[in-house]
Design a protein that fits this description.
three-stranded antiparallel β-sheet; binds nickel (II) ion; globular
Length: 155
């Protein structure tokens, strides 16, 4: 089921999300929510979606990756590279607005998978950027808060 994507002025989008319980993650409610978030992300042509964007202030993120989707619960960024890259970013909660945002070029993210198991992933390039964008969402921070130069966006 496609969910409604909330925009930047919604209080949930601006809230700090709480961690999820590993046991809850394995249950039917979480599994349905994850499937709905992936469907919603794809339908909106997004490459990432965070639960606060669909009205749930919990630490759950979906990211389009290769042919499938990565699901990160309670993600924590560790060992971010000193080197940063500045590139254009948009956000489903701020439609039609794009800006240049500096992000760490690489990082390690620790998270729980959909079985509630702890995992870690090394990310670089676009994936590292999306991870940082989505983890920001869990703190109520949007890309527009991090840009000092708005751009036209890609056609
Ligand atoms: Ni976003």
């Amino acid at each position: 089921m496609r969910l409604k994507i909330l925009t930047k002025d919604d209080p949930v989008v601006r809230s700090v999300a709480r961690p999820v319980d590993p046991a809850w993650l394995k249950g039917p409610e979480a599994q349905r929510l994850i499937a709905d978030m992936i469907e919603t992300m794809r339908a909106a042509n997004g490459i990432g979606l965070a639960a606060p964007q669909i009205g749930r202030a919990i630490q759950l993120v979906t990211i389009a990756h290769r042919d499938g989707a990565l699901v990160l619960a309670n993600p924590e960024i560790r060992r971010p590279s000193r080197r940063q890259l500045t590139e254009e970013e948009g956000c489903l909660s701020v439609p039609g607005v794009f800006g240049l945002v500096a992000r760490h070029e690489r990082l390690t993210v620790h998270f729980l998978d959909t079985d509630g198991q702890p995992r870690s992933l090394e990310a670089t390039g676009l994936l590292a950027r999306v991870v940082q964008h989505e983890v920001d969402h869990l703190h109520g921070t949007l890309a527009i808060d991090r840009t000092n130069r708005f751009t036209a966006g890609r056609p």
